[in-house]
Amino acid sequence: MPADIIDGKKIAVEIQDELKQRIIQLQGKGVNPKLVAILVGEDPASLSYLRGIGRSCTSVGVLTDTKQLPADITQKDLLKNINELNNDSTVHGILLLLPLPKHLNTLVAESAISPDKDVDGTNPISTGKLLLGEETFFPSTPYGVQELLMRSGHNPDGKHVVIVGRSNIVGKPLMGILIQKQKGANATVTVCHTGTKDLAAITQQADILVAAIGRAQAITANMIRSNTIVIDVGVNQIKDDSTGKFRLVGDVDFETVKEKAGAITPVPGGTGPVTSVMLMVNTVKAAEKLSGN
User: What structural domains and CATH numbers belong to the chain?
Assistant: First the structure.
């Protein structure tokens, strides 16, 4: 029996509707949640992501702005711009778009963002709090994965979650979120990576499999057991031989895996829409905390 399709677009709309009510309450107290994205240079992927963020902000009523800086900016001047936003009381969330030009130190820049405005959870203080199970801002993609699981009826509590991928953006923070003894977590988590031997032997043990490996259609049907819940974080472009055009696919071979899985997210339309909305959730949360609401 084919898997249930976890509709990320539908879940994103649910979260947006909830956010709108919180924003109305803030606006009634004279607070307008605002997110500022810092873009250094003109990276095409960052520009595309920025457009998506703008649409998400508009859809819920979050103010948004972009501080676009030249690609040859010095580290000192980048930090100066970040500090200005830290000190701007009208700004509640700061998002540093990556990758930065190679001459800039990403960790130093991320560390400069105030933890109170670090709505994508990249400051090492935010990362440390996440691992300790303390209140902090979760990075938007792993936060979105948790929301997808909970809102689609697949609570990870007590389940074996296998994450394929150990990036600082998805794999590591998702492990940190799901391993906590907290609501929406409390899972047994295994993290696999390029050094993992006999990957399929481990993925076949998963109740929930999260694919964040960065390789198109790398997870195949023989790598999962029946009724596994599959969350596909990957976004890859491949050429369609039948049309000669490029199309988006995930890290999971969707067409074969959906025949075996219990539930699965599609690409596009799965984790992507929810990731963008979780950035708005964090921005609103920051506005509530910074304004004392």
Answer: 29-114 (3.40.50.10860), 140-271 (3.40.50.720)
Burial class (CB in 10 A: 0-12, 13-18, 19+), 292: exposed
Q: Can you give 94-119 as a three-state secondary structure string? A: EEECCCCCCCCCHHHHHHHCCCCCCC
Q: Tell me what the pLDDT averaged over the chain comes to.
A: 94
Taking only the tens place, the pLDDT of each residue in 218-251 is: 999 999 999 999 999 998 888 777 777 888 889 9
Is 0.70 surpassed by the pTM of this model?
yes
Sign of CA dihedral 293, 22, 130, 134: positive
Number of H-type helices and E-type strands within the chain: 10, 11
**Side chain identity at residue 227, one-letter code:** N
Longest dimension (CA), the chain: 58
The single residue listed with the structure tokens 């100066």 is 80
Question: What tokens does 269 get?
Answer: 């339309």
Rg of the chain over CA atoms, in angstroms?
19
Rounded to whole angstroms, the Cα distance separating 132 from 141 reads 19
Query: Do 165 and 213 contact (CB within 8 A), yes or no?
Result: yes
Q: How many CB atoms lie within 10 A of CB 74?
A: 11
DSSP for 166-209, please give it: --TTTHHHHHHHHTSSSTT---EEEEE-TT-SSHHHHHTT-SEE
Q: State both tokens at 180.
A: 């906590």
157 CA to centre of own chain: 20
CA atoms within 13 A on the CB side of 200: 8
Instruction: Tell me the torsion sign for CA atoms 135, 140, 146, 148.
Output: positive
Asked if residue 195 lies in contact with residue 177, where contact means CB atoms within 8 angstroms, the answer is no
* Spatial contact of 119 and 35, defined as CB atoms under 8 Å apart: yes
Looking at residue 293, its pLDDT comes to 66
